[in-house]
Amino acid sequence: MAIIFINNGVNAEMTTNTIITIKTTSGDIKLELFDDKAPATSENFKKYIKSGFFTNTIFHRVIKDFMIQGGGFTQDMKDKDTFKPIQNEANNMISNARGTIAMARTNDPHSASSQFFINLKDNTFLDFKSETIQGWGYCVFGKVIEGIETIDKIALADTGSYGPHQDVPKDPIIINEVIIE
Prior knowledge:
This protein is mainly beta and 181 residues long. The protein has helices at residues 39-51, 148-155; strands at residues 4-5, 14-15, 19-24, 27-33, 57-63, 67-74, 100-103, 116-119, 140-146, 159-162, 165-169, 174-180. The longest helix is centred in the N-terminal third of the chain and has 13 residues, at 39-51.
């Protein structure tokens, strides 16, 4: 963990949260993970980073004006083997606002493993409402602190279908590596 000042000292806030960088073929995205507000989710994500899991995966789902999703597929759309799913921490009440990173999952609220998405706009309909199947929502566990222009660039990718998958960029957007600062 590093202590950093955000906003170049102007209205600076100090954080001891983890800072990571997702290095992609479209540019870098630097994020602050909310170790303090989503500790299990943040630890899970760091475990994947430390194992090198994200290297050479892709953003496999891009929906303009919604979100970009990655962290689970190789360039040839092969599923990567993941660690055990984690408990959903969306009851931390952090909203799926523009520039936040959240865990992707199946219909099972506690099925998140490696896949994540970055919100391109405020997607409050994805927020926690109640501890029910329909109400759990999607756990936000960090936010973009540099590189918002990169997510906006990725959002413009031309997409299509690849087998059963939809909204797949026609030219792969590769995650070269994810590093902990």
